[in-house]
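Input.
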Amino acid sequence: MALATIVVFGGLGAWLVPVMRDVNIVLFLQGTKPIYIQLFIGTAIGTITAMAGWQIVELPFMHSTKVFFVNIIKPLQLSFFEILFISICAGVGEELFFRGAVQPYLGIWITSFLFVLFHGYINPFNLPLTVYGIYMVLVIGVLGLFTEFIGIGTAMVAHTMIDVILIFRLSKADIPKNDGEIQEDSVN
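Output.
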């Protein structure tokens, strides 16, 4: 699935960027700032926003959301390299499509909302998940701003860092019961 993300979304994004942005794909990928600045800012923003996102998921109000995500990720028993691979594919493929091709047409905030909606984080029947989704709309909007003013590399790296940190944390998390006790892990 990760490989399909980078091939389908990334390929579609690379194909559409010259049309949607009227710029050569290579120039778009270079951005307006040097790559080392994009890498540094992307790593910093991705780490900070992932850690803040984890703090949100750890709130008692978010218990059901954390359990939902842990039950998806933990049984996969992903190695760190698998998490890294999945995260890079999503970071590059999705950002190239959404930031590169969709954002110039729909704007930063509508694209960010659609991105989060596409990931299933906005659900009118699940308030905790929607709270997390609203946080992610803000984060993804910031990545959209970085794309426009610094370069898509910043958004790709930040997205990758967010995924690496959150998937890793979810893969190692114990599922707490509502009263704060730790549920025994049945998958070891």
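Residues 116 and 136 are 7 Å apart (CA to CA).
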